[in-house]
Design a protein that fits this description.
The complex is a heterodimer of chains A (331) and B (179). Chain A has helices at 12-18, 33-38, 74-78, 81-86, 88-95, 100-105, 108-112, 119-122, 164-170, 188-191, 272-276, 285-295, 307-324, and strands at 5-7, 24-27, 46-49, 58-59, 65-69, 174-179, 182-187, 210-217, 225-230, 241-250, 253-262. By secondary structure, chain A is α+β, with helices and mostly antiparallel strands. With 179 residues, chain B is α+β, with helices and mostly antiparallel strands. The chains are: A alpha+beta (331), B alpha+beta (179). The A-B interface holds A 1-6, 27, 30-31, 34-35, 37-39, 47, 49, 51, 75, 79, 95, 98-102, 104-105, 234-236 and B 16-17, 19, 35-37, 39, 58-60, 63, 66, 69, 72-75, 77-80, 82-83, 126, 129-130, 133, 143-148.
């Protein structure tokens, strides 16, 4: 690890002020940042510890939904009674990720800020546009089994590694942020970004921004939702493809449908306009296949990840069938 | 320079940019003067000489460094020591009491739940964490919740047997207490 100075601000405002663009990193759980500092991928001059800010509770008092404090751990979120009852999709997604130790430490705000697990991003001996803009992308012609098939650019084919964020995308969560210009709300689908020609930017936060909480809307699809994660081993592995599927049904007719994909793009992949086309249609495999096709439109493989183009639509249909028949969700 | 027989003790200078902190480990308070980039794992092993906690991958992948922070199992290799002042840290050294081994340790001995023993302190701390969280009600859940602790010798079946037995004992005693 490089040498850095350490500060522990007492207020959100102090944290915002203490954060210098480019040289500062905010630390909470630290499970990803400390690891990246050990690999010398992240080399901050100042580390700002926000764990003493009062952002560590889940607020259930609002009738509009649930507010997850940025510092609530992933484990406390997944096991929270109200999250399990009303947002089982989120609980399932969190528990599908990482290990017990990591979930006990990692925070909800930090989960949003996770960086890619692209091997070349971690390997400082190889070019990587995300780590070192302009140096090139080693994954394009390298080993790219875990890489993106959607929304990628010639500069970067990395994927976002989170499970939690895929569920948040399906649930239409909102990220609350305090920055130099005060507070603002970022819809989850606008939080992360596609790589384009600035792959070094994972998200649309501005320098000095501190994530304070995540709002879940009232509608949690608690009756018909499922998280399906396909990976190389059954536990403690990142997704090759993951699907957060949610349905609102009237008999067998689709009233509302949400599908977000993980492991296929630089951000959780969702197409609300394609979902709308299914409203009023029967909840059948045929309907789900149509949505899967729309979601995968334009998918491109890079060799080792070609299989995802076949795997993803199948996973989407299966996740939706699991959501429809909730009892099968653990198959 | 030739080595001499005379023991010389060098005064260790304070690291640059160091912080004075108090770590509460196994019920004892320790004053430390450490650099902010010192991990909790390194502070435990190098500063406090609590070498029961092991360094395996040093990247949060193997679980050898697992300790309990306020009763919850975490990877100490991914924790900065300077961030852990106001919490209770328990390492494998803090589990046994004057009365004897911790029930989890006893179960590991009984089931021969190790071979080389390097992963064992982490496995034991994760098992205690599992009991503290009151999780692990099904075989699948136990295996999943223990997946953050790798055993290079492959003693998984015996580890699983130890965890299962101690979980059953724990559940029984919980029920009795409830009565």
């Amino acid at each position: 690890m490089n040498n850095f100075s350490y500060q522990r601000p007492d207020s959100i405002q102090d944290a915002v002020t203490a954060t210098k663009p480019k040289t500062s990193k905010i630390i909470a759980g630290g499970t990803n940042l400390v690891d990246l500092m050990k690999y010398r991928v992240e080399n901050p001059d100042e580390v700002i510890d926000i764990t003493h800010l009062a952002l560590d509770t889940i607020d259930t008092s609002s009738s509009e939904g649930l507010r997850l404090g940025a510092l609530v751990t992933n484990a406390d979120t997944a096991y929270h009674t109200e999250v399990k009852q009303n947002y089982p999709l989120l609980s399932e997604a969190i528990l599908a990720g990482a290990s017990t130790q990591l979930r006990n430490k990692a925070t909800d705000g930090g989960n949003l800020m996770q960086r890619t697990r692209c091997y070349y991003f971690y390997d400082t001996a190889t070019p990587c546009n995300k780590r070192e803009p302009g140096s090139g992308c080693s994954a394009l012609k390298g080993f790219n089994r875990i890489h993106a098939i959607l929304g990628e650019s010639e500069h970067c084919i990395a994927t976002h590694p989170s499970d939690m964020c895929v569920a948040l995308a399906a649930l239409d969560a909102t990220v609350n942020v305090t920055g130099v210009d005060g507070e603002r709300k970022i819809p989850i689908l606008d939080f992360h970004r596609l790589p384009g020609d600035e792959p070094e930017k994972d998200n649309n936060l501005k320098p000095g921004d501190v994530i304070t909480s995540i709002d879940l809307p009232k509608k949690g699809f608690s009756e018909n939702s499922a998280y399906l994660k396909v990976r190389d081993r059954e536990s403690y592995a990142f997704a090759l493809v993951s699907v957060a599927a949610a349905l609102e049904l009237d008999g067998n007719i689709i009233k509302d449908i949400r599908v977000a994909l993980g492991g296929v793009a630089h951000k959780p992949w969702r197409k609300p306009e394609a979902e709308k086309k299914l409203i009023g249609k029967p909840a059948t495999e045929e309907s789900f296949k149509l949505l899967a096709e729309e979601l995968l439109k334009g998918a491109k493989g890079y060799g080792d990840n070609d299989f995802k183009i076949t795997l993803a639509p199948r996973a989407i249909v299966r996740a939706l069938m699991n959501a429809k028949d909730k009892t099968k969700s653990n198959d | 320079m030739k080595p001499t027989n005379q023991e010389t003790k060098l005064a260790s200078p304070s690291p640059p940019n160091s912080h004075e902190i108090i770590l509460n480990v196994n019920g004892k308070k320790h004053n430390l003067n450490i650099a902010p980039w010192t991990t909790l794992l390194d502070a435990l092993r190098h500063e406090l000489k609590l070498t029961g906690t092991k360094k395996g991958c040093d990247h949060g992948q193997c679980g050898a460094c697992t300790v309990l922070v306020d009763g919850k199992n975490v990877n100490s290799c991914l924790c900065l020591a300077v961030m852990h002042e106001d919490v209770e840290i328990t390492t494998v050294e803090g589990l046994a009491t004057e009365k004897g081994l911790h029930p989890v340790q006893e179960a590991f001995v009984k089931h021969d739940a190790y071979q080389c023993g390097y992963c064992t302190p982490g496995q034991i701390c994760s098992t205690v964490g599992l009991l503290n969280m009151d999780k692990g009600d099904t075989p699948d859940e136990i295996r999943d919740l223990m997946s953050g602790n790798l055993c290079r010798c492959g003693a998984y079946n015996n580890i699983y047997a130890a965890v299962t037995e101690v979980k059953e004992q724990y559940s029984k005693s919980q029920k009795q207490q409830a009565k």
